[in-house]
Amino acid sequence: EVLLQQSGAELVRPGSSVKISCKASGYTFTDYYMHWVKQRPEQGLVWIGRINPANGNTVYAEKFKSKATLTADKSSNTAYMQLSSLTSEDTATYFCTRGLYWGQGVMVTVSS
Amino acid sequence: DIQMTQSPSFLSASVGDRVTINCKASQNINKYLNWYQQKLGEAPKRLIYNTNNLQTGIPSRFSGSGSGTDYTLTISSLQPEDFATYFCLQHNSFPWTFGGGTKLELK
Q1: Which of A11, A28, B70, B73 pairs with A73 at a CA distance of 20 to 30 A?
Q2: What is the tens place of the pLDDT at every residue in A33-44?
Q3: Which residues of A touch B87 (CB under 8 A)?
Q4: Sign of the C-alpha dihedral, residues B22, B23, B24, B29?
């Protein structure tokens, strides 16, 4: 069974950074791109970017190029996304997804 | 970026109704269009991939069609569990872009 297990909710201060994880199981981690998607409360979905876990190659949406950093650890079958210089605009749920399979989402709240 | 204009934003319907949801792309997306259903507090669920391919396990009352810039999701006979929000996603070119969503509500 394919599972994408994401880390827990985060409450972070404005200006700080946060790193969230997505642990994959039930398939060969390096065979599929991992995508990340943002969803602000009661709003739509926004594609952040994707990583190829086999070689670390990344593609980002322009608006996230200085906000998000995607990495992957083949040894632990885990994808990561770091978000930097956090503002209230970054308060959202962040999903990792393989297209068909999705993580449960991580709620990141930016508040002082 | 390819803009995806989804309509309607809200749809009120009854059990048994046939409903259609549309997505219009700002340029040809070569049928690289997926449909997702999302319920409150849950991750999206893929219903249809590449315009008209029904995901395994999804009821046959869901279907997709379209080409070029215009795509449609049809639910042939609404069931109580279908009341949710629906999104389209183009994956023809980067950045991938979603439609704004259609909230399907019980009339």
Answers
A1: A11
A2: 999 999 998 889
A3: 44-45
A4: negative
